[in-house]
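FW: tagging you since you asked about this chain on Friday. Here's the raw sequence from the shared folder, copied in full. Didn't touch anything.
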Amino acid sequence: MKVLMMNAGHLGSDYYRVNEPVRVVHEAGLGVDVTVSRGLATTMRPTGGNEPVVDDVDAQGADVVVLQLPKTAQMLQCIHVLQAQGVAVVVEMDDLLTGVAYGSAGYDALVRKGMGRQALECARAADLVTTTTPALLAEYAPHGRGVVIPNAIPRRVAELPPAYERDPEVVTVGWAGSVAGHPYDLQEMGSGLQQALDRTRDRSRFVVLGQKWDVQDRLRLSEDPPEIPWIDDVDAYTTLIGDVFDVGIAPLRIDRFNTCKSWLKNLEYAARGVYCVRSPSAEYERLGLGRRARAPKDWAKALTVAIEDPERRREQAARDRAVVLDRHLTEYTAGSWVAAWQRAAENRDLARRKGA
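HL: got it, structure written out here
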């Protein structure tokens, strides 16, 4: 079987949902030839003043084409053209694009301008949909042609020296993310973070890996935390998490978008031996790693314990990392990816025989 994967150009999604799957499938020697392409080569047909339409798509001889996060009318046209050629189409989705919160950086394009709705149409036309979570599968594959392949961590990352091997005098509590993309999540902690910092003054600090924007005002922190700029290389980014953070926080507002969201942040913290305090989102609960916190008092207590009790912090972080190594490495998912692509090809063959 020959598979062509089109990536969407988003660093994290490309890494975990395209590049890593291709690597582990090749290394597993499962007899599948997988090629990655940035976009598809198409021939467009003019329509007399209106938007041109897709007339032909070069599938590069593939039996299955995987489209990551398709969300335009032209991508929907590509799906239909490929299927008419007898090529099976898989749509890969790792976020609920119609659920992006008002105030987020992508809200205008994804919600107001309808790109999220186009993504739903693409998924419903596909021969198979792959998603990161059961909730996403329910949104994108109500037709029943879908499968969940959870996010996982490369062994080379999970086997790096873990954060819990350090014995810092000042414990670093860290958050990895961009306030622009998560405008309401950090506020789930209320005053809990500041309470913990106050209780452990001179023994703790808070840092943001990414884009902090106005985080001091949002959390009413007594001090503006330092910001470590984003690192575009994902291996370097996950390495840095374990090199800098002793305790990681993963607050999420419980809304449609976050209910569908993957457990990835919590998984990255665990893989790097970082003690995690996190919200009770469905996926974080399903993963079962880290310390749950709901109200500000829960955040304050969990963070204070993590800072003041290094042995407890190390024990919990070590247990969580062991779970990642045992159950959540990318190499364990190779067969799932291949099975999904094979199922898509079978679905296309069945649709062809039925004349669809």
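FW: The mean pLDDT is 97.
HL: agreed, and Residues 132 and 151 are 6 Å apart (CA to CA).
FW: great, closing this out.
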